[in-house]
Amino acid sequence: MTEPRPVREGPLRVGMVGYAFMGAAHSHAWRTAPRFFDLPLQPTLTALAGRNPEAVKAAANKLGWESTETDWRALIERDDIDLIDICSPGNTHSEIAIAALEAGKHVLCEKPLANSVAEAERMTAVAEAAAARGVLSMCGFSYRRTPALALAKKMVDDGRLGEVRHVRAQYLQDWLSDADAPLTWRLDKEKSGSGSLGDIGAHSIDTAQWITGQNITGVSALLETFVKERPVGGEFVGLGGHGGSDGPRGPVTVDDAAIFSARFDGGESGAGPIGVFEATRFALGRKNAMRIELNGTKGSLAFDFEDMNSLSFYDAEDGPESGFRKIIVTEPEHPYTGNWWPTGHGLGYEHLFTHQVVDLIGAIASGTQPSPSFAEALQVQRVLAAVEASAGAGSQWTEV
Ligand code: SOE
């Protein structure tokens, strides 16, 4: 932790790299945060960077950015930018984040932090040196900012579950079930680092470690690529789309699905839970089922993002008539929700990103390390690497 510094006030001038799915979600967050939260620093959408001049201008107009750059290096050189927000594919993260931090810009970097442990280690070393100079960084594990998951963490911290014995985490989507869905950058290992594992499994890993306050220490894993070649080009819709069955096809170089079992380090008590994880884009009918269930010595918690405004809680102390009860996480006392709508008027996916920038702005203003830090994201990266190593060695138990 860095020592708290005097509270800063004024603008926080943001420069963002990339403007697709994550770029749109982050733009919405920067625009919306000051309208619903009292912020110590006022974000301005100062400049957007992308390689194609026409496309980046069109995106800037649509998403509300004041100016554009066609090279991220130019963004970093500008003295009217305080923070670089990295929303480009994983293979670009380390170079941009390191250059930005060394130039004295705060950094928000999409997850997973990098495409390899070596890159993530370099980023973390630079981030720690920058933090000593008051230049801060955070990785965008946005699900931490889901009110129901933030409440789950609080309940675990408050001891409502007792000692956690089981972690059961699944991240299920189905947008690759169509064998003719196009070959996009998310299916290219060079650009994305890995497939379901890093894109969505990373969220489950981070969420599980954060809620339990424990690190994963070892894994045994299986990875599978069901569709080995996909159409090049084609109609791209949302994350997937349809590429047509007759044109040229190229190789899918990442996993379509990942499953692994895991041990946790036990934190202060030493007796850690065991975990089961599953990440896939082939679970037909499951659209964004980011789920986690925890069973402890005193109770259980269950969450599914497809019903994101609620959390299920089983309290063993309720006696023989007890059952899972559904907490609608929209009360003013619940995390983040008091700044939005009256009780019962739920939130959506975009709110996670708004909460993320609210927390980041608060940390920058007070000079404290935001979480997840690059060091926390490096631990997730190490778990991803252990999963790949284990799967490559016939599911052999692999220490993180
Ligand atoms: C971003 O946080 C992200 O992980 C995307 O990269 C996934 O594709 C999405 O489905 C969940 O959010």
Question: Could you characterize what this model shows?
Answer:
The protein has 400 residues and is α/β, with parallel strands linked by helices. 32% of the residues lie in helices and 26% in strands. The chain has ten helices and 19 strands. The strands form four sheets. Strands 18-17-16-15-7-14-13-8-19 form a nine-stranded mixed sheet. It has a six-stranded parallel sheet with strand order 3-2-1-4-5-6, with helices on both faces. The protein has a two-stranded antiparallel sheet with strand order 9-12. α1 crosses α9, α4 packs parallel to α5 and α8 crosses α10. The longest helix is centred in the C-terminal third of the chain and has 19 residues. The mean pLDDT is 95. It binds alpha-L-sorbopyranose. The site of alpha-L-sorbopyranose has 7 residues, from α8.
Quick tags:
single chain, six-stranded parallel beta sheet, 2 domains, nine-stranded mixed beta sheet, Dihydrodipicolinate Reductase, domain 2, Rossmann fold, binds alpha-L-sorbopyranose, 400 residues, alpha/beta
